[in-house]
Specification:
Largest sheet: 6 strands, mixed
Number of strands: 6
Number of helices: 14
Strand order of the largest sheet: 1-5-6-4-3-2
Helix content: 55-70%
Length: about 350
């Protein structure tokens, strides 16, 4: 039965991939209407969106946000929409999108740049708010993954809530609450491939706990990949999807071994360094082939800042939610993150090429 289950999933994935045809004819002019599911990336004079499998570049204004509904028109060429024109823009009225927007605005009003965008990125994956020059430095130092919501964010949310909820509720109530919170956070952070992968894996792990069964990391990772590809087969060609699964696989394979090898490294740096080195084993060749660049000092830069991420996320997440009802008090809490973001920015500047 177990073999039949996995074989069925693999067959479904293959069928979905091979039967999924390009949605748009090459070099034809099309009009696309879609809700923005990923945070747009803002540049000096333009903004980049991913709409229904197409990369779309539009003028910087009017600004488009996660959750907005847009209609664009242009000519399809190699997965891009050339000469794209914004036909209509309907700002999001969804509850989660509005909450996300208010939290990001609170960060921007409380801290100068790039501190505000760093906090928004670490906490909610709001990479669209990051200044272009700061983003360039993050890419060069190999720290860009830290300010894009990923599996570590979901793990932190799940672990934190597990500790809090078990103080007040029975275990049979705690797991459904955590699963609900994980998917609410995934929606707040933008339903991109790494976040969905982490949410699926987290859901499997916590459900296994509720059923009293041990959850294999490999089975959870494979199940997450197959389910995601059945739902959205075009992710098989998505770089973010590929990097997410490769990095997670390398963490499962190598992190424990590397951490033992680095046993003489101070505790505050050991986990970050071992995590970074393990992930880079698989990710670095892909980045080198795709973008033609890789910073050899990236693991060191990661080790020096990764310890700040859980603290920044805990402080800014708490302050962001409190800021919805008591901004003044929330701002006092948020100030606790300023030394941490200052250290992060200093390291990023120091290691940038």
């Amino acid at each position: 039965m177990r073999f039949l289950f996995w074989a069925t999933l693999v067959v479904l994935v293959l069928v979905r991939i091979f039967l999924t045809k390009p949605a748009y004819p090459e070099r034809k002019r099309v009009r696309v209407t879609a809700t923005v599911k990923e945070e747009p990336i803002k540049y000096d004079y333009q903004q980049k969106l991913n709409l229904r499998g197409l990369k779309v570049f539009l003028p910087k204004f009017p600004e488009i946000s996660y959750g907005d509904k847009v209609t664009v028109e242009g000519r399809v060429k190699e997965g891009k929409l050339e000469d794209a024109k914004l036909v209509s823009l309907e700002k999001s009225r969804g509850l989660l999108a509005n909450v996300r927007g208010k939290i990001i605005d609170f960060y921007k009003k409380s801290f100068p740049e790039p501190h505000a965008s760093l906090i928004a990125g670490v906490t909610l994956g709001a990479k669209g708010e990051i200044p272009p020059l700061f983003w360039k430095d993050l890419t060069e130092t190999g720290l860009a993954h830290v300010v894009v919501a990923s599996g570590s964010n979901v793990s932190l949310v799940g672990g934190f809530l597990l500790g809090v909820f078990t103080l007040f509720f029975a275990r049979r109530v705690v797991i459904p609450l955590i699963l609900t919170a994980i998917w609410i956070y995934a929606a707040l952070a933008g339903l991109e491939a790494p976040i969905i992968r982490a949410a699926v894996m987290g859901s499997i792990a916590f459900s296994a706990q509720a059923l009293g069964k041990l959850s294999s990391a490999w089975r959870a990772l494979l199940l997450a990949a197959l389910v995601m590809l059945i739902v959205k087969p075009e992710w098989a060609r998505d770089l973010g999807f590929i990097l997410s699964f490769v990095a997670t696989s390398c963490l499962i394979l190598f992190q424990g071994r590397i951490e033992k090898f680095l046993k003489k490294v101070p505790d505050i740096l050991r986990e970050g360094l071992s995590t970074s080195l393990a992930a880079q084993i698989g990710v670095s060749p892909i980045l080198l082939v795709t973008f033609g660049q890789f910073n050899l000092l990236s693991p060191i830069a990661n080790a020096l800042v990764l310890w700040t991420v859980p603290l920044i996320m805990a402080i800014s997440g708490t302050a962001g939610l409190l800021g919805l009802v008591a901004p003044s008090l929330a701002r006092l809490i948020l100030y606790l993150a300023y030394p941490l973001t200052s250290w992060f920015i200093f390291i990023n500047t120091l290691f940038a090429k």
